[in-house]
Design goal:
Elements: H1 2-12, H2 16-75, H3 88-98, E1 105-108, E2 113-122, H4 123-137, E3 140-148, E4 154-162
Antiparallel strand pairs: 1-2, 2-4, 3-4
Length: 164
C-alpha cells in the first residue's frame, strides 16, 4: 500500500501536461494490451478450429478409403525376406529386442506359430514391431489380446504369431 501511495504522490507532483501525457500513455498501453489479448485468443481459436476441421477431414477420408486400403494391402505383394535357417522365435525375439520389447513368456505352437506374452509393453513400440515383422519377414499376428495398464501407453499383450 505504501508504494501505491508514493506513486500517487509522484503523479500528483507532476505538471498538469505531464499528468495528461501519462494518462494518455496509460490508456494507449491498456488498449494495446487488450488488443493483443483478444487477437491472441482469436488466433488460438482459429488454430484449434483448423486442427479440428483437418481431423474431421482425415476421419472422413479414412471412412471412405478404409475398405479399399484394406483390400489393397492384402492384395499387393510384399517384399518378404526369407527366414533362412532362423526360427520364428529367433526372428521375433531379435526384432523385439531392437524395439526395446521383451517377452514375459513364449510358447512355440508347431513349426509355424509362436504364442507370446508381454507385460508393461509400450503400445506404440509393439505396433511398430508387429508392422516390421509383417513387412520384413511376412510374420503376422493371428490372435492378439491387449489389456491397458495404469501407466499411459503401457499394455499387457498375448498374441500368436505365424509364418506364412
Amino acid at each position: 500500500m505504501a508504494k501505491i501511495e508514493q506513486l500517487k504522490a509522484k503523479i500528483a507532483g507532476l505538471s498538469p501536461s505531464d499528468q495528461r501525457a501519462l494518462g494518455g500513455l496509460s490508456a494507449f498501453l491498456l488498449v494495446v494490451v487488450i488488443y493483443l489479448v483478444v487477437s491472441a485468443s482469436f488466433e488460438f481459436r482459429n488454430q484449434r478450429l483448423e486442427a479440428f476441421n483437418e481431423g474431421r477431414l482425415l476421419v472422413h477420408w479414412v471412412k471412405l478409403n478404409a475398405k479399399p486400403a484394406k483390400v489393397a494391402s492384402w492384395s499387393k505383394k510384399k517384399t518378404v525376406q526369407t527366414t533362412g535357417e532362423q526360427s520364428l522365435l529367433t526372428l521375433a525375439s531379435d526384432s523385439a529386442k531392437k524395439n526395446a520389447l521383451s517377452f514375459k513368456r513364449f510358447q512355440p505352437e508347431g513349426d509355424k506359430a509362436l504364442k507370446i506374452w508381454m507385460e508393461d509393453a509400450n503400445f506404440n513400440k509393439m505396433l511398430l514391431w508387429l508392422h516390421g515383422l509383417e513387412h520384413t519377414y511376412g510374420i503376422k499376428p493371428e490372435k492378439i489380446s491387449v489389456d491397458r495398464q495404469e501407466s499411459p501407453g503401457l499394455v499387457d499383450v498375448t498374441m500368436t504369431l505365424s509364418l506364412p
